[in-house]
What does this fold into?
Amino acid sequence: MKKLLSLLVILSVSFATCVIAQEKIVRMGTEGYYPPFNYFDSAGKVKGFDIDIGNALCTEMKVKCEWVMTDWDGIIPALNSNKFDTILASMSITDKRSKVVSFTKPYYFNSIQFVAQKESGLISTMPADLKGKIVGTQSGTTEVEVLEKYFPDCELRLYQKLDDALLDMSTGRIDLAIASQLVLGKWLAKDEGKCCDFVGPSFATDGNKGTGIAVRKEDEELRKALNEAITVIMANGTYEKIRSQYFDFDIMVQPVVANEMFK
It folds into this structure.
């Protein structure tokens, strides 16, 4: 009897070990410098809207999320080099990016907007009114494409992290900064953002298709699983619960695009 019990214990432990070993891990690539979407808390743990959405999707897919941090500039090459399995870092879905990665359906829509110091006297952000102004933004973003296309007479200043652009904005080293309206709104509400305010209307980049999760072209099954999970969490209230913790308005509304704003 004792031998039988010992055998059952061994089999039970072996089965549990096998289950753990077979648990699927999905490596989620993100940046960590884009609050409130992805950022590090005081303990160095990554948090934010993107992180909560990713964890909810992993729960729905019955897999384990493993978060991998990387610089924004190299985030797509890192994905395609198998450093992680997805990019969940508030990445806009664009035709250019879709040539090298595949995207899920959007999990939110994002407008961009200019900010300037309150005493700047700036009111309009039409291209003719910003001629000669120094405008800062994060390199590798769709904002760069907007500035190059519609604001060729501005001096473009690029930063590896948006925080660095906002620091120069607050100290007057640049005249304006442009980034996500949602991100800038959170910054303006902080002490370091009290220097500045929104200028001009918000708008989206041309061909705006929302913000999605990127996967490698060959990972179609993962893309399908993510899409199904997005549909479920939007239907069962999980998405709304997460959204309400960060924003008090609907972030699934598609905004007016740049070519309509500046035509």
